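Entry 12.
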Amino acid sequence: MTTNTITQLTDPQGFSPDPLTDLLRSGAQRLIEQAVEAELAVLLEAYASDKTDDGRARLVRHGHLPEREVMTGIGAVPVKVPRVRDRGDTAEKVRFTSTILPPYLRKAKSIEELLPWLYLKGISTGDFHEALAALLGPNAAGLSSTTISRLKSDWWKEYDRWQRRDLSTRRFVYIWADGVYFRPRMAEEKQCVLVLIGADEWGRKEIIGLADGYRESTQSWRELLLDLQRRGLTHAPDLAIGDGALGFWHALREVFGATKEQRCWFHKTGNVLNAMPKSVQAKAKGHLHDIWQAETRVDAEAAFDFFVTTYGVKYDKAVGKLTKDRDVLLAFYDFPAEHRKHIRTTNPIESTFATVRHRTGKTKGCLSRKTGLAMAFRLMISAQAKWRKLDGANRMPEIIQGIEFKDGIKQLQSAA
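Predicted 3D structure (tokens):
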């Protein structure tokens, strides 16, 4: 006699032939219910001592709100939020509002991040429902083209408010600058999004500037920097990190002349190697790494001289690209060693936009100026929530105080 030990599970409505997905959604539903119940327990406990005139508890459970579905990365998850009844005589009644499931939440934050990414990848508004159905299941309700259009409008309004925020109380020690192209999705081929990220006195990174510009011209960068200054950003950053685009550096010297400059080693390495034959690129790349990975400036200078001597005669154009920025490539040695991995490249911007920037394909539609900015803004805000503080954040106040660092080490100040 053969015993069948395989349990037959219900096919989860065609969303996936793998029943594990259905189990995950059930588990997510239980976790959400437990979290909301925990929120409710805190509220009930806070009012546990409050009684009505006849001695009954003032605040009690009172059923649930109607069930609704929240779209998540594993499909639609049904949720119910409990209600409370306030039996007190006060005019203002106590209500329970879950922070996990706000009254009008219909989509998890992961979906909010997915939408602008898909749009910049080239999915047209009318194709969203089909694309999301493939990713989230056929019941991707509430994500029609009308919903997408409304979300784009909301994102633009959010960006517009953010762009006018007051900066008078802010102080940024480091800023990273780059121009991001979404070709061919931008309406104008030469148009790009100018991005500025800052690290404040607590080592927290955040986006501080986002605007469209014509290529990466001096005028476009000047307008962005002057706008930040007009809204209260009067303290010049101590160090700016960016690639060799002349537009930004010219504008920076005009607006924040006291800011020191650090060229991005990621961009510089690519520029130098592109001027050399592939047969020597791997070896030359290792010698470039010897420069910026050196422990002290003296060692870096020695590695720099070695590179020039080794490749200067045969590959003078490649070496010229390196030597013209020699001083500003080594500026990071005048800042804390803990910050080196953060300030040698524009990685905070590169990593955020890498997928979209390098993988966009040709599509039949183009982004308008407003849509492109709104999408870029949403991507940056989503990414910002996951950024961590700089290593050695306790060093930031020392930089602001003007304490000198040599080879990344704090220098003792002599007594007056």
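Annotation: The domain at 107-263+362-385 is CATH 3.30.420.40 (Nucleotidyltransferase; domain 5). Confidence is low (pLDDT under 50) at residues 5-15, 358-364.
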